Fold ATP-dependent helicase IRC3.
Amino acid sequence: MQLRPYQHASVQAVIRHFRQHQSPAVLVLPTGAGKSIIIAELARLARGRVLVLTHVQELVEQNHSKLVAMGQDADIFSAGLGRKQSCGKVVFASIQSLSASPQACNQSFSMVIIDECHRVNLSGDSQYKQVVDALTGANPQLKLLGLTATPYRLDQGWIYQQHSNGTLRSAEPKPFKTCIFELPIGQLIKEQFLTPARIVDGAVASLLLPSDNDDPDTMLINQGRATSLICEQLVKLGPQHKGVLVFAASVRHGEEILGKLPADDSALITGATPGAERDAIIQQFKQQKLKYLVNVSVLTTGFDAPHIDLIAILRRTDSVALFQQMVGRGLRLYPGKTECLVLDFAGNGYSLFSPEVGEPKPKADTSVVEVPCPKCGHHNHFWGKEDDNGCILEHFGRRCQALIDDGNTQPRQCDFRFRFKECPNCLAENDIAARHCHQCDTALVDPDKRLKEVLKLKDYLVLRCAGIALSPVQLKSGQAGIKISWYDEDGTEINQHFGFSTPGQKGAFYHNFARMHLRAPGTPLRLPNVEAVLASASLFRHPDFVVARKEKYGWKVIETLFDYRGRYRKADSAY
């Protein structure tokens, strides 16, 4: 079997890594990239015995069949498939069956390959931990390799610590040490290994639906009328498509959707669907005896039905990776299929080509932006906003993700922070959520405690900031200056003046105002005069709270609090 160029490259990446390192590694490959073929090639090339683990019997059978098609023999260890063989050079097993067999776990293998490895948890007493610990006991030199399309979990974050491109994902222990190869989904579509997707987001999808007054429906999922209109549209689109896959928000929602689709041409699968019934439904759908398949958090991984050409998403997700997994179900090639229509009725708004950021969207209108580090040059991916020319208007990154390897010490994370909390003792920059200075260990003031203290003092004012304004002003010296006005919901203002004529004044403006107020910190800021500053007013954000002290001639700003998360209400919060 001839490997595609990227499949060959991923196999070579595995060989190179394990020749030099013992640490667990992961390959990130999109849905439809042919992970089972890569597994088969690795198993063929391996000198020792190889164990391939996964969580569903369908993948066990699928991966096994690819190796057999390459002319190799292999065993299957899966109670669900009625086979428990584990003596061959290559064994394909389900984690459930293997964890229940201590004898099989005590065999010696040179490599363990875990498919859909984002499900792995190597802490506590999980099945994967028990099996990996037992296999490592049998062979301390065991190599551990994971394959997934989504190396991120909402409950645990990234499943690996660092990327081969020099990005640090986590300083905390993770199941895998390094992502040694990652293939972007856009490359597969461009090279025609996957079917293009036409994604229609919730706002536009709502225009497809009729309403009583001809106005676009608001498309609120779980409201009966909206679900009815969506299902009516899916039924209308049905004859134009071979297979329709629907992602529901809950079991109750899935049952509601199923009740509005053609009864003899639709089925529902949930986590509670018995195994035999689930297998029968999937087979009917794959054989195109069913047109519509509704599921609730079940068919996001390990499900292969290439004829799917319409996907309806009626559930929200905070994960770019999960969204891409859902869309990926419809991207496999199939005769006569030219595109997959994706109707995102939940308005998730993610791009199919966006990398996973590792954080939920801070605002609905944000997307993934590339932010270079001004210190090391590393290109970071953060949530943010761009203008029509691709210039970054705002981003929400905290620290550069670069992994610096100078060859003399252990690789370390770049210490540049886009957003930070300054230590009053040593002036070191700390993470905005830090409670102690990382450099001198001084306790950093808790924002809630700070606000509680100053609210008790008569000579202090706490402004719940709702906005900021910049305006020109003439200083007592006669020079042109800048007036900064912070204001609350009732229009109360606190003002501060800055000169902007000398290099020292420009430095004071940047240090005392600009660096903390920038919407896109770390981006180049070249403002030669007052007019340029005023023209760039949109680059600055307002703080959540402004603390001022009363002096002889008015209020003096002594502190601004950004990125506040505490018990006091912010200006943009509901009453």
